[in-house]
Specification:
The chain has 153 residues and is an all-alpha fold. It has two domains: 86 residues, no CATH class; 58 residues, no CATH class. Helix content is 60%, strand content 0%. The protein contains seven helices and no strands.
Length: 153
Amino acid sequence: MYTRCLLVMGFVLVGTAACRHTSVGIHEEPSVPRGMSDACNTTAARIQALMAQGQFAEAEVLIAEASVGGLISREHAARLLNDIARLNMRLGQIPATLQRAKDFPSQLREYTLHEIEQMLNGKDFSLATQAQLKMAKKLILEAPRLMEKGGDL
């Protein structure tokens, strides 16, 4: 699979510029060969699959290669890397002010947002209750906004 991605990247580098989309009201078909458009879609799907599986290092490498190769825009790559950083954030990394919230689920400090979401989706309440898992998720996702408001939950 990795070899195929490298071949696609090589094709992109040798070929023309890649996936271009207009943001104006008129949508024009991208002027890339059909195979290139398929490569863009395949790459994006592969990145999402790696992220869903928690394989963040592999996803970061693929994002970097796809960005350099023109399969995804630099802006899209930045958004994906930001998403990975958020999913990889541990509850214990949020500011101390938020860790003093009422009923803070301290047993989840070493767990990442990705792991907490997996527990919620799998209805695994062996470490924490559903309410505690939801609070942990909210604290990680909304930490910057909550800090601006003074740490109120």
